[in-house]
Design brief:
- The protein is mainly alpha-helical.
- The protein folds into 2 domains: 184 residues, Cytochrome Bc1 Complex, Chain D, domain 2 (Orthogonal Bundle); 166 residues, Cytochrome c-like domain (Cytochrome Bc1 Complex, Chain D, domain 2), CATH 1.10.760.
- It has 16 helices and 2 strands.
- It is globular and about 75 Å long.
- The two termini are 40 Å apart.
- 41% of the residues are buried.
Length: 431
């Protein structure tokens, strides 16, 4: 069966949403847990379920669905040798038992970062990874933490050398022969490009490499990212009680098989109705994949974060973007970059809408982790305190009224928690 195109799904969603909004004001029983759903409401609810059972194509990564690449990426994801101190792995900030987050306000690797570590469950569906969208593929996203001094703290030369030392056979089976990297004078371990710092020691060392040697290192670095993406594509959100409820509704049971409590059913009614959460949290992953400025409370102890306004500039300048020599995608098909305008006013202070799948298990919340609980998140939407520290608050952001009980919304959000993926992928590989 063909999957509907994203524009077709969007048009269907907007039509259902408009009809639900039009009917909301004339329904006297709208907050009753057992009030029957209208056809428009049912259509909207069905658009939120079930979670996808397979990731979308990844045209820029030719090994995205190669089981050998997934196995290599699986090993790399849990390997603490991929860090300057031998103690930090991707799994340090994306712990399986915490639904691939770390439970901290902001991530900690070698040092403290300024943003919350989002879950990687469902990351294969994200068009522009990171909170600010500064990459355009999941494999390119993997590079950022590896070279970030406060995360893994490695250089791409060190990453390439580690691959040669510990993963040579697995790598070469996928990508072909590795060059000999044993000459440290030719391939100085500390060499890496540092944007906007051409005079830094690492940058100078990087420029000392011949052009073919830089290309060789970049190719290995790109392929490491592609293996990590192949693994992360295995990490898909699993069906939750909400999905069982929707399936029961579709089978003709008006009570949804009893899979949701009365509080959760009222929360769902508010979610798609007067609370208008579904404006941004829509589709089977409950995210529009877009960027919004919520006008979060200002933190006087942190720097102003421009969010998407900077991320859009960085993705256009990324050496591993779509259309680059390291991408497997036809440059003529890179429309998502061709029409990206970094000067768009609404990008200032905007951050990506996170998926609400498993949201009860992936706090703290917001890009900087400043809200600890779902109750705090709902309290924020009920008051919308202060003003945006940069740019302007989302114009369509809805103030939740006291008529929407926080407990009902929380009960619904808790119903979005499913089990972890297949145990093979949700734990470190066997030695």
């Amino acid at each position: 069966m063909r999957t509907p195109s994203r524009p077709a799904l969007l048009l269907a969603f907007l039509g259902a949403l408009a009809l639900v909004s039009a009917l909301a004001s004339c329904r006297g029983d709208g907050r009753h847990a057992d009030a029957p759903w209208t056809p428009a409401e049912l259509a909207l609810i069905e658009s939120l379920s079930p979670p996808p059972t397979a990731p979308p194509p990844s045209p820029s990564n030719r090994v995205a669905d190669d089981e050998r690449a997934a196995a290599l990426g699986h090993a790399l994801f849990f390997d603490t040798r991929l860090s300057a101190n031998g103690q930090v792995a991707c799994a340090t900030c994306h712990k399986p038992e915490l639904y691939f987050t770390d439970g901290l306000p902001t991530a900690r690797g070698l040092g403290k970062t300024k943003r919350h570590a989002p879950t990687v469950l469902g990351a294969a569906f994200v068009t522009f990874p990171f909170w600010d969208g500064r990459k355009d593929s999941l494999w390119a996203q993997a590079h950022g933490p590896l070279e970030a001094p406060e995360e893994h703290g490695l250089t791409r030369v060190q990453v390439a050398t580690l691959i040669q030392t510990h993963y040579r056979a697995d790598y070469e089976a996928l990508f072909g022969p590795l060059p000999d990297l044993s000459d440290a004078a030719r391939f100085p371990p500390e060499a890496r490009p540092i944007p906007n710092k051409p005079n830094a020691v690492a940058s100078a060392k990087w420029q000392s490499l011949s052009a073919p040697d830089r290309e060789a290192i970049n190719t290995i670095f790109a392929n490491v990212g592609k293996a990590l993406e192949a693994y992360e594509r295995k990490l898909l959100p699993q069906p939750a009680p909400f999905d069982a409820y929707v399936k029961a509704l579709q089978s003709g049971d008006p009570r949804g098989g009893g899979h949701l409590s009365p509080e959760a059913r009222r929360g769902l009614r508010a979610f798609i109705g007067e609370a208008q959460c579904v404006n941004c949290h829509n589709g089977p992953l409950l995210t529009d994949m877009e960027f919004h400025n919520l006008g979060l409370p200002f933190d006087p102890y942190s720097n102003v974060d421009m969010g998407r306004a900077i991320g859009a500039v960085e993705v256009l300048g990324d050496e591993f973007r779509c259309g680059s020599p390291y991408s497997d995608q036809d440059p003529a098909t890179c429309d998502q970059l061709r029409f990206l305008n970094p000067r768009f006013e609404d990008f200032r202070g905007a951050f990506k809408t996170p998926s609400l799948r498993n949201v009860a298990r992936t706090g703290p919340y917001m890009h900087d982790g400043q809200l600890q609980t779902l109750a705090e998140v709902i309290a924020f939407y009920k008051t919308l305190p202060g003003r945006a520290q940069v740019g302007h608050r989302e114009l369509v952001l809805t103030l939740l009224t006291e008529d929407v009980p926080a407990g009902d919304l929380i009960a619904f959000l808790e119903s979005l928690t499913g089990p972890l993926p297949d145990d093979r992928w949700a734990r470190p590989p066997a030695p």
